[in-house]
Each structure stands twice: as C-alpha cells, then as structure tokens.
Specification:
The structure is a homodimer. Chain A is α/β, with parallel strands linked by helices and about 325 residues long. Chain A folds into three domains: about 45 residues, lambda repressor-like DNA-binding domains (434 Repressor (Amino-terminal Domain)); about 130 residues, Response regulator (Rossmann fold, 3-Layer(aba) Sandwich); about 130 residues, Rossmann fold (3-Layer(aba) Sandwich), CATH 3.40.50. Helix content of chain A is about 45%, strand content about 15%. The first copy, chain A, has twelve helices and twelve strands. Chain A has a six-stranded parallel β-sheet with strand order 2-1-3-4-5-11, sandwiched between helices. In chain A, strand 8, helix 11 and strand 9 form a beta-alpha-beta unit. In chain A, helix 1 crosses helix 3. The longest helix of chain A has 18 residues. The termini of chain A are far apart. At the A-B interface, helix 4, helix 5, strand 2, helix 6 and helix 10 of A face helix 4, helix 5, strand 2, helix 6 and helix 10 of B. Chain A binds a DNA duplex (30 and 30 nucleotides) through helix 2 and helix 4. Chains A, B: It comes from Streptomyces coeruleorubidus.
Chain lengths: ~325, ~325
DNA sequence: GCGCTCTACTAGCGCGCTCTAGTTCGAGTA
DNA sequence: TACTCGAACTAGAGCGCGCTAGTAGAGCGC
C-alpha cells in the first residue's frame, strides 16, 4: 500500500479511500492509483483491513458436507450476501470434524455471524453460540435461545403431500422419518395428523430412517422383505427427504417394483436431485433460495440493528407433482416379484 | 488480551506465549492465565494474530458446490491439514459465482495456498494464479504452469475397467465422456486405446456428455431412442463419472432395462454415491482421501520449503467390481421393451 | 564473592490497514 | 478584500496480536 501511495505520489490514506470506494478522491487520482496498484499487483490485505476497521463484514456458514440440500442453500447464500456487502466463509462438518469445530473455525476467522444449515449439535451448545455471536439456524429450531430461525412450514408441506396421495386413492401410506434430522419431528407429527384427518390412523406407519440415500435403500429392503413374507407393500411412501426417496426408488425399482404404477413415492426438499429421474420426483419444494435469502437477511439485520428479539421466518412449502406419484394400484393387482 | 494480562497479573507478552503453547511460562502461571481467559471469554483474534505473524497458516479450497466427488475430497483435506497445523477455508463456485471469484475470496482472506478441486477456469488464469500464490490442482493438469498437480492415472483406471468388461464378453462398449470435465480427455483417450488393443476399434463409440446426472439421464434417453429405431443397445457403458453412471442407471432401469443382465455400467470416482445401489456400482476408485492428503502435503511443502519445481502426484486407481457389471447378454436374447 | 547459565518474565515495535481530525487550495460570496 | 466553504488530500493514532531483545532472579561451581 505504501508502495502504491509513493509510486502514485499520494498518501497512504488516499489509497485507502480509493480502495474503499469512498468519496474524497478526484477521478484522475483514483484512476492513476488504481492503475499503479494493478501494475504492482497490490490487493488490500483483508486481515489488516479487518483488524483496523473492527468489522469483518463476513458471514460464516456451517454445513454438512454431503447434504445436497445444503449445497442448494449455499448457492442461494452467496448472491444475497454479496448484495448486502458481506463476504461468505464456508466451513464443513464431516465425520471426523464436528459441527462445533467447524463453527469455531468460522469464529476464529472473525465471522460476525454464523448461519447454521440444519445443525445437529447439542441445543446447549447452540444456545451458548447464540449468546456469543449472531447465529441463524436453517431448518432446526433452537428453543429458548437467541438464535434466529428459518424453516418451511413442514406441516403444510406434509399435508399437501398427503392430500395429494389420498386423492389418488392411496390408503396404505407409509412415512420414512428423518430421525433426528432437521424438520423430521414436525413432518412425522404432520404425517400422523394427516392420516388421522383422513380416517386412516389405523394404517399409519412410521419407519425410522435418516436423511440419507442409505436409509432409503435400507427401507426398500425392509419393505421388500416384508412383502416376501406376506405383508403387502404400502401403495405410497412419504420419504423423509429427497435423498431418502432416491435411495428407496433405487432399491424398489431394481427389485421390479414399478413406480408409480405399483407404488408412489413422495420426497421432501426439491433438491437438485429431484429433477434427475426421467419422470422426476414428486416432492415438497422447500425454496432453498428463499430460505438462504432470509437467513442472510436475518444475520445482517441483527448485525446492523443491534438488539432484536429472536426471529423466525416460516416459508410455505409447495408440493411439486412429478412422475413418481400416481393413482393407487387396482385392488388385487399382482405386484411383479 | 490486555484484560487477561492485567487480571492475571502478567504482561501481555506472556499471555501471548501461553496461547501459542510456547515454552517460557511456568505451569502455575499458564494455568492461571488460561483460567482467567476462560472467565473473561477471551479467544485470540486470528486477524490480529495473522497480521502480526505474517503467516495465516490457512489453506483455501475452491470447489464446485454440487460435485459429490469434491465433497469426498474435502472430507479428506480437513484432517490432513489439521495434522500439519493448518486451517482450512472453503469457497464454492456456483452458477452465479465463478471459480475466479471463489479463489479471490480465499486469497483476500489470506490463504497462503489454494487447492483447486477439478478447476474449470481458463488455463491462463490458473497459470497466473500459480505465479501469484501456491496452487495445487486436483484432477486437472495446468500445463506449463507453476501449479502442483494431483490426479489418478486415468489411463490405468480405464484400462482396468475395459479389461474387466471385455473379459465378461462385452464387445459393444460405449463411453460417455465428461466433456471438458477434469480427467475426461485422458479417459476418452484410454477408452479408444483399449478398444483398439482389444481389436474393437470398429465398435468404439464416444457419446459426448458431462459429469452430471443429467448427462447420464440424457444419454440413457438417447440410447433407448436408438434402440426403438432398430439400433441395438450397447452391452456395456463406461460412464464419465459416477454421477453420470447414476443418471444413466436411473434412466435405463426405469425403462425396463435390467442391469447388469441386459447391460453393464461402470462408473468412475467411487464417490459415496457408488455404494448406494442395492447391487452397488462397479466403478473405478479414485482414492479421494489419498488425493486430498497429497494435495495438502504439496501445498504445505511448497509453503515451507520455498522454491520447488512444479510437482505431480499420480495415484493408481483401482477397479471396484460391484453389482452393475456382469456377463454379456446371450446372443439374440430379447431385451424387454 | 564472582561470573555463569537457565528459567520466567517484560517492553515495545511493527504487521497493513482504517479512521479521525486535520490542512491546503481554489472558487464563490458579501 | 476578506471571508466561507467544499473538494481533495494528509498525518498519525490505533486495531490485537507476535516477536525480538532484553531484564530479574534463582541456582550453581569455584
């Protein structure tokens, strides 16, 4: 910076002004300084900048490396953050790297706020985090804590999916849940409520699962094994999320079950996987882009407005009917083995 | 820091020593200072630390948000970097965010080196990047540039896959390539060479594709359409990568083509998707963990040893035979429509 | 008693920037 | 002419650390 200033014949302060795009420099000087900087290859050092101005204008994002829905969210976070003048740093949780570790990395890099994508850490830890810094959680509520919360109205989404299936004539509708996954509890509850509302409580069945393809594959195996020992397949499955639905589809299709002729499958998320199948996956769309926007805005507003009470954004999900859901199979129709 | 020093009755320098885990403080003082720091909630500010010591000990990783293989690589980068005492910052390229932008973000956050996962940017840009900083590229060679390179021996992998298929009796083996994707050119070349070596050059066919599920789905559609107009299906397909193989499988399976009875499919990468299918995807394993380790080591060695010539690590891929490859269908067998 | 070494600690500069409180200068105003 | 004012620019403190060069004091041998 000093070099640039000297070579351009101005003070360091002016160089600083120019690089911060602030008023107070004439057009010619501005151009000259920028040209010199370019020649020298000078780029402002963000560490020093950050130290000097006391603010980093950086948002940290903690995500789980393999979750496709998270990558959809990230895609939405970048542009909104940029629009508001913030940088984004990513830190991934993996098998060997806990969420807490990922978050600490963000904080020690001076992120002013952290956005947690479907966090799975201890509520106590999250609550403490909310005290320590500005935190926004997507998909998982952190009760009683100073953490903003963005999610979609799981209940509404599930209800739409269930109404759709029932309308198609389905009665034996099974739900694979998402275990401790974000949103799972609400989805499970909404599934049960929907079955009750349609007078199907006797047939309600929740199969424990996870938000992974593996879980879908396993459930497929389970259902097939049950069929082979006499218990009929359900006619429709509401999966915990798209990944689970995909696993299930792979597993059933391979075994000769035709979707949606023999069985309907509905996912959740509308992650980019959903478009994949030739028929497309019927799924409940969570608008990742919109959720990302809200999360970024919550973080920034809290940073810039100081004390605000914890807030919550609830987005309406929307059923997207594609090819994996269809009318219930005719009674007594033989399912190919 | 000053607060901690005062409250513990020592100098700031000593607090610094203690937090850097350096020798030169007595056990009691150390404990007292740490206790005080904990009470106050002091954590060293990495911006200032970084500014003061001139080194950030941080590696930047540029990746493409939706690439599953990249997430496998990231999973391997974290532990190795930690082992060597480096922090890791992630920056994703998305549709709206170019690789260059992602890299700039890393550099302005003072990453000392960047690891590029399958970069797709202009060679000129990458070469310039190699001049400007320490850069390691995984999967894509940057010719003539000061960029280290980690990849697997694509040729060997493809050869193993082809030998496997030929041994199973396959002759009509088609390759879906990966377009400009990393490694694609080598794989394409190796496919052609293998066909030639087995005397099958007349039957060689490369279908242009990409490293995405969509591309696999599309190719499936293409092959089915061809079949319907009289051209027989190939008996085996070597896909550009696992994602492409998955798309292909979805598309074909849905149309009643049974894998591997009617058609064998081999992927490339052995990304975590490969285990998904009930039968498992036969694929060429690129050891993501090992590749990640090498990349991190390259970066760190270059940082700590100063001038080194550009280096290259070639890892041996390994064919993993799972369920999607099998003997060639009996001649004249009717493929179910 | 002296010098020596070793451990435990400290003073204070400098990292590269931002920001406040200026200064300078030319044009406009009474 | 004397002034005000705004645009263009500058000096220099300070952000929170790390690090070098140093000091104080205890222990030791002679």
């Amino acid at each position: 910076m000093a070099d640039v200033a000297e070579k351009a014949g101005v003070s360091r302060a002016l160089v600083s002004i120019i690089f911060r795009n602030q008023a107070g420099a004439s057009r010619e000087t501005r151009e000259r300084v920028l040209r010199v900087a370019d020649e020298i290859g000078y780029r402002p050092d963000s560490a020093a900048r950050l130290l000097a101005r006391g603010r980093s204008r950086t948002l940290g994002v903690m995500f789980t490396v393999q979750q496709t829905f998270h990558t959809d969210l990230i895609t939405g976070i970048y542009p909104e953050a940029e629009r508001l003048g913030y940088d984004v740093l990513l830190s991934g949780a993996t098998h060997g790297r806990s969420e807490a570790k990922a978050v600490e990395a963000l904080l020690s890099h001076r992120c002013e706020a952290v956005i947690l994508l479907g966090p799975d850490a201890e509520p106590d830890y999250l609550a403490e985090l909310g005290q320590r810094t500005v935190a926004v959680s997507i998909s998982r509520r952190v009760p009683q804590a100073h953490v903003d919360f963005v999610h979609s109205a799981e209940g509404k989404g599930v209800r739409q999916a269930m109404d759709h299936l029932v309308e198609l004539g389905h009665r034996r509708i099974v739900h694979i849940d998402g275990g401790r996954g974000p949103g799972s509890a609400e989805r499970r509850r909404a599934y049960r409520a929907a079955m009750r509302r349609h007078g199907l409580q006797a047939q309600a069945r929740v199969i424990p699962g996870e938000h992974t393809e593996e879980s879908g594959v396993e459930t497929g195996r389970l259902l097939l094994a049950e069929r082979d020992s006499g218990r009929p397949l359900p006619t429709a499955v509401l999966a915990g999320n798209d990944r689970c639905a995909m696993g299930l589809l792979m597993s059933l299709t391979r075994a000769g079950v035709e979707v949606p002729r023999d069985l309907s499958v509905v996912g959740y998320d509308d992650s980019h996987l959903s478009h994949l199948m030739p028929l497309g996956l019927t799924t409940v769309r969570q608008d990742a882009f919109l959720m990302a926007e809200h999360a970024v805005r919550f973080a920034v507003e809290r940073l810039e407005n100081g004390e605000l009470p914890p807030r919550e954004a609830v987005l309406d999900p929307k059923l997207v009917v594609r090819g994996t859901s269809g009318p219930v199979p005719a009674e007594g129709r033989r399912v190919p083995s």
